Amino acid sequence: MKREKSPVKKNVKQKLENVRKWYRYQFFGSAxxxxxxxxxxxxxxxxxxxxxxxxxxSTKSIGKGKTVKIKISFVDKHGKVLAEIATxxxxxxxxxxxxxxxxIFFDNExxxxxxxxxxxxxxxxIDTYKWPQPYKDQRISxx
Length: 143
Description:
The protein contains 2 helices and 7 strands, in the order H-E-E-E-E-E-E-E-H. The protein has 143 residues and is of the alpha+beta class.
């Protein structure tokens, strides 16, 4: 007997794919995640970044729903370690073996005004590696 695929699962998947408006880029860097209300700092590695959020790996739980301040550190094209700050809220967290995978939505999209060095570095990565422009629907080509 042939099993039919559920149309509900397909529709949910399509809706989830359409929610993300910025591309995610693999990104080599580290992050210090500060939870202001708890006066706690958690070290993490960056898995990926977009203009609206960041994916992190850490050995400690940050906590879903927490408001956070993130210091994003990276090595630029000249080998210099740079850092920028962004704020956001933990959207999801999942434990994988001894690591926590965490997705954080930024309060505001990354911009040349608030994170100029990070935007410059992302622009260089996009141009150098021929990555797609950040905005999925191609209304703008800002980089």
